[in-house]
Amino acid sequence: MRSLCLGLLAAVSFSSLAINSDYVGSSTSTIVMVNSYSEYGGGDVYFTLASSADECPNGYWMRKTDPGFQANLSMVIAAYQAKSSVRIYGLPDEMWSGTSGKACRLYAISYR
Predict the structure, then answer these.
(1) Per-residue pLDDT at 42
(2) How far apart are CA 40 and CA 63, in angstroms?
């Protein structure tokens, strides 16, 4: 019974890692620019860091229709204004069409 429980725990742990392995994290940095678009993408917000993740060298973006948009936008603006240290997690498979560079869709933001 114990080995069955350990096996199930290991399977759940590995599946959790696989689910969360799609995003990449930046180093701790500051937000240096924020752009908000009234029409492009239906209200996209695009921002850059002083140092982004290698996979997201041109910054990060989020859609107005994203479930956490209002909370994430509030955090981005507050961090930008206060020059707070943040770590940004982006989805490198979801690039923004508003730039010719590689800007990743925002997965999460964390104050440091």
Answers:
(1) 85
(2) 10
**Which residues on adjacent β-strands are paired with residue 104?**
60, 95
| Per-residue pLDDT reduced to its tens digit, 93-107 | 998 888 888 999 999
List of residues 6+ apart from 98 with CB closer than 8 A: 37, 40, 41, 44, 46, 61
Q: How far apart are CA 60 and CA 48, in angstroms?
A: 6
Q: Residues near 23 by Cβ (< 8 Å), separated by ≥ 6?
A: 89, 90, 91, 92, 107, 108
pTM of the model: 0.78
Nearest Cα neighbor of 79 from 44, 47, 43 is 47
Count of alpha carbons within 13 Å of 105, Cβ hemisphere only?
16
Tokens of 77: 């603006």
- Counting every residue written for the chain, the total comes to 112
Distance separating alpha carbons of residues 54 and 84, to the nearest angstrom? 21
CATH numeric code, 23-111: 2.40.50.110
